[in-house]
Amino acid sequence: MADPILVLENVRAGYGEAVVLDGVSLEVPARGGLAVLGRNGVGKSTLMLTIMGHTNLSGGRIVLDGVDITRLPAHRRALAGIGWVAQEREIFPSLSVEENLTVAARPGRWDLASMYRMFPRLQERRGNRGNHLSGGEQQMLAFARALMTNPRLLILDEPLEGLAPIIVEELTAAIGRMTADGEMGFILVEQHADLALAATAAAVVIERGRIVHRDDSARLRSDRALLDRFVGLKVEAAG
Length: 239
Hints:
Shape: globular
CATH architecture: 3-Layer(aba) Sandwich
Number of domains: 1
CATH class: Alpha Beta
Number of helices: 10
Order of helices and strands: EEEHEEHEHHHHEHEHEEHH
CATH topology: Rossmann fold
CATH superfamily: P-loop containing nucleotide triphosphate hydrolases
Structural class: alpha/beta
Number of strands: 10
Strand order of the largest sheet: 6-7-8-3-9-10
């Protein structure tokens, strides 16, 4: 089995004096990804921000691909290979689609041609400015721009929230292609538990800033009672 791409050991973090995460330990597999589940307000986004270096970390250790990044500032973590698709999308509204994709691109597997193959809609709109795209197209662009940095670890913070079903289908297919490529790990924070578990190999559930359950994604997806107990979300019948 390959070593995990990311390891957190007893991480304690929050904002100022307030502690949100307390004693969080987890591993992100190098292939297949990790789903992070939990109700709203339990610390999922804080966990992502902590990995990115945007919170006050007061204890524990963060290791990326064998290298301790605990004390690295956020920009150094990005350079070390962490990509992020934020819930707010955060594209450049005044730049064209193509400019958004190329502005932070790095050499690697994912390039402009591969992004246009993955998202033909972006190629059709490559000359359009970011603020002229629909919400779903902006999310595609945010996803593609993050891949263009060719990260070793990609963080997806609720990428499917509020999107039309056809866009959800396109993005989940893109996550599947990214997983099949097998060259980077990813973390998927998602309110749609079924989709998150179908796309990942492992899962953790957070409550009040602590991990209260960890499991194989397929096994957790089949346990509807456990999902309802820990996540409390409406989930589709397993198929």
